[in-house]
Amino acid sequence: MKKITINNLSYKYLLAENKALNNISLEVAKGDFIGVIGPNKAGKSTLCKSLVGLIPHFYKGEFEGEILIDKLNTLNSSIAEISLKVGLVFQDPFNQISGAKLTVYDELAFGLENNGVEREEMIARIDKYLDLMDLNKVKDNNPFELSGGQMQRLAIASIMALKPDVFVLDEPTSQLDPQGTEEVFKAVSRLREENLTVILVSQKLNKLADYANKILFLNQGEIVAYDDTAAVFSRNDLEQMGMGAPIYTEIARELGLKNDKDQYPIRKSEIKEMLVAKYGKNIG
Amino acid sequence: MRSLSLYVKRNSLIHKIDPLTKIIYVFVSVISPFIMPTLMFAFSLTLINLLLLLLAKVIKRVIPIISFVFIIILTIFVIQGMFYGANQTKLFTIFNLSFYVEGILYAAKISVRAINVLLAFSLLILTTPPAEMIESLVRRGMPAKLGYIMHSVLQIIPMMSSNASIIMDAQRARGMETEGSLWVRIKAFIPLIGPLVMSSLVNTHERSIALEVRGFSAATKKTFLHQEEVPGGMKQLRVFFFLFLTAVLAWRLVL
Fold first, then answer.
1. Do A116 and B222 touch (CB under 8 A)?
2. What's the rounded Cα separation, in Å, for the pair B162 and B255?
3. Angstrom distance (rounded) from CA A64 to CA A61
4. Could you say which of B17, B95, B118, B233 has the lowest number of CB atoms within 10 Å?
5. Mean pLDDT of chain B, nearest integer
6. Does the pLDDT at position B253 exceed 90?
């Protein structure tokens, strides 16, 4: 079932010379976990902003084409309306704290209050997502006193509480230490358990290999590849375009290990299986 | 990071009163001495405010505020005592400077009113958590955006000061002198402004995106996580305050 349809999307920021996105068309099915990769200025963040309606409603510029979330056209809907269908978490955890609430518990209520959710329902959702994002221990703390990883989990929980169908995460771990990154990816795995449609921009290719069923590779505002994760990471031209591949794919490439679909393995378990099949159980 | 707030947590009767009733009280207490311009009336209200602050167990916090305005009050006494237009009856003379009864009384009236305003607002601010006060106003129709501005200022000022110290640390690490004489400090302040303002603008821009995607501009009617707890008797108290104000007005008009 189609969840997101993008038709001929192009966007140029005000005063910019080139288009940040150029004629993008793609479809995302319900429950898909899409990893978005690409070098700098590829248009990854612009795509995220377009999906939640910040482009063209918040950022003015030249917008062409359309984005449909189910039947909701982002061009004809307000950001508030879209925010109930599409949630966005971005890089800086600090700036995602509203600044209007004094405790983590109250911070989770911020979006729900704005959207007029009834109090009983609000409490039920807050309790659920505090639990799910493992924030119960800090629920009475000031949000600004949390660690980076906790803040980012709070940002994810705040958006999840709005129950969007689509969850967009724009490099949510780029400003976090390894522990914070691990915490956030654990949280992201819970999004998958909730059967949400997830679009995750990240440079952590090993993690994307673990979670994403499809990869969208953007370069200079255009789609280079949009395919199954293994198919994209098996391409030989990734390095040429400033991208690498997951570590296990690189190892498999060195060893010349390919599966029956003529693709390199992307996860540790797959490479292990293939090595065992090739050299027997006593390998290593 | 602590929120910027003067609220003092205590277990007192005043703390239990809901924010709206306290706001109405402050309004009545501040405006009445201007309607009824007698020294005794303003003095009585000041005394009541002092008693309430005592009851709220926050009187110690008021002393520094009063000390701060003491210099201003002293100036009012000196200037009005000597130069008030209606000065006639000489009270005393120091170093050839004459002070008059009329001027001193007029200065007393102004000062007592000023202290009364200060005490009334202190009573509200020291005994009411800012979040509750703002929420109470938003519930009664104050635009949520204005409420957010009031709220965020309390959090964002400490955030800016923490950012400033990070920037200063970075500048110090590059060999810039930021400590020492007043002149050195002033010189160090100028290069701080640029990065601080720029980073604050960037942060504000990003935060506004975060707010938007959480329905900040939603057209739906806002709901509230916390229920407003209004102790018994508050409605009667609010009516009493209005009746008091009406009586003061009537008295002024009749007399």
1. yes
2. 56
3. 10
4. B95
5. 88
6. no
- Which of A91, A95, A117 is the best mutation test for B, with the most CBs of B within 10 A? A95
- B200 vs A: CB within 8 A: no
Contact A111/B224, CB-based, under 8 Å? Answer: no
Contact present, A243 and A217 (Cβ < 8 Å) = yes
Which one of A79, A99, A118 has the shortest CB-CB distance to B155? A99
Inter-residue contact A113 to A122 (CB < 8 Å)? yes
Rounded to an integer, the average pLDDT of B152-158 is 75
Contact B151 A99 (CB under 8 A): yes
Amino acid at A124: A
The answer to whether the CB atoms of A114 and B218 lie below 8 A apart is yes
Taking the C-alpha atoms of residue A151 and residue A170, their distance in angstroms, rounded to an integer, is 15
Beta-carbon count within 10 A of A231 CB: 17
Q: Is the pLDDT of residue A28 over 70?
A: yes
Cα A180 from Cα A175, distance rounded (Å): 9
Q: With both helix axes pointing from N to C terminus, report the angle between B144-173 and B130-139 in degrees, rounded to the nearest 10.
A: 150
Backbone angles phi and psi of A3, in degrees to 5: -110, -45
Residues A109-166: tens digit of each pLDDT: 999 999 999 999 999 999 999 988 889 999 999 888 898 889 999 999 999 899 899 9
Kindly tell me the sign of the dihedral angle through the C-alpha atoms of A249, A255, A256, A258: negative
The DSSP string of B74-108 is: HHHHHHHHHH-TT--SEEEEETTEEEEHHHHHHHH
Tell me the two tokens of residue B49.
């405010």
The encoded tokens of residue B166 equal 């990070």
pLDDT at residue B179, as a whole number: 79
pTM of the model: 0.78
Q: Pull the structure tokens for residue A115.
A: 């959207």
DSSP tally for chain A: helices H, then strands E: 11, 10
CA–CA separation, B107 and B73 (whole Å): 8
Answer yes or no: is pLDDT of A85 > 60.
yes
Cβ–Cβ < 8 Å for A83, B212: yes
Q: Do A115 and B215 touch (CB under 8 A)?
A: yes
